[in-house]
Amino acid sequence: GAISAETIEIRGRIAGTVTARSVKLYATAHVDGDITHGQLTVEPGAYFAGRSVKLVPPVPEQLSLVPEAAE
C-alpha cells in the first residue's frame, strides 16, 4: 500500500511507499518500500529496505512576456 501525509512517524511494520515532508523511523520500525521525504530521521535499530528519495518542491513556471509585433 501507499501512505501519504504531511508528517509520518513509523513505529511498526510498513510494506509499500511512504511520502511525507517529514518521516521518522523509530527503533521498532520495519519498512519495506521507498520513502519520499523532505526530512528523514532514522533511529538506531530501525529496519529500512528501499530507496530514499528527496522530496523536491515544484518549481514555479517562469512567465515570459513577449512584446506584440508592431503593425
Brief account:
The protein has 71 residues and is mainly beta. 0% of the residues lie in helices and 51% in strands.
Could you explain the architecture of this structure?
- This protein has strands at residues 2-4, 7-10, 13-15, 17-25, 30-32, 35-42, 47-49, 52-54.
- The mean pLDDT is 90.
- By secondary structure, the protein is mainly β.
- The protein is rod-shaped.
- Strand-and-helix sequence, N→C? EEEEEEEE
Helix amount, in percent?
under 10%
SS-based structural class? mainly beta
Report mean pLDDT, rounded to a whole number: 90
Topology:
Elements: E1 2-4, E2 7-10, E3 13-15, E4 17-25, E5 30-32, E6 35-42, E7 47-49, E8 52-54
Parallel strand pairs: 1-4, 2-4, 3-5, 4-6, 5-7, 6-8
Note the main attributes of this structure:
rod-shaped; five-stranded parallel β-sheet; three-stranded parallel β-sheet; 71 residues; mainly beta
